[in-house]
Specification:
Blueprint: H1 2-6, E1 10-11, E2 16-17, H2 18-21, E3 24-29, E4 35-39, H3 52-61, E5 69-73, H4 86-92
Parallel strand pairs: 4-5
Antiparallel strand pairs: 1-2, 3-4
Length: 95
């Protein structure tokens, strides 16, 4: 259910779901319902760095039974195009 919620969050610069871009590196859900998410951005100076993690947290928190949601922005490993799902590649015309 958390993944489904994350699939509602789009990168505003690239109209593609961030989950399909491979920006979500780690997702942990504790028995208590608390969620820890590690994510990255497509570039270090990405202008959405201030809003995208909050949108991810809000999407995860919207699920019934979810407790505290923590989203951490990480830079390692560095994101690259190999992270993109087949669906996102198709949407972006990368085939």
């Amino acid at each position: 259910m958390v993944i489904n919620a994350l699939q509602t969050v789009y990168d505003p610069e690239i109209p593609v779901i961030i989950y399909d871009l491979g920006l979500i590196y780690k997702l942990e859900i504790a028995n208590s319902g608390n969620v820890r998410i590690e994510m990255t951005l497509t570039a270090l100076g990405c202008p959405v760095a201030g809003i995208l993690p909050q949108q991810v947290a809000e999407a995860a928190a919207s699920i019934d039974g979810i407790g505290e949601v923590e989203v951490y922005l990480v830079w390692e490993p560095i994101w690259d195009m190999a992270n993109i799902s087949e669906d996102a590649k198709l949407a972006l015309g990368l085939f």
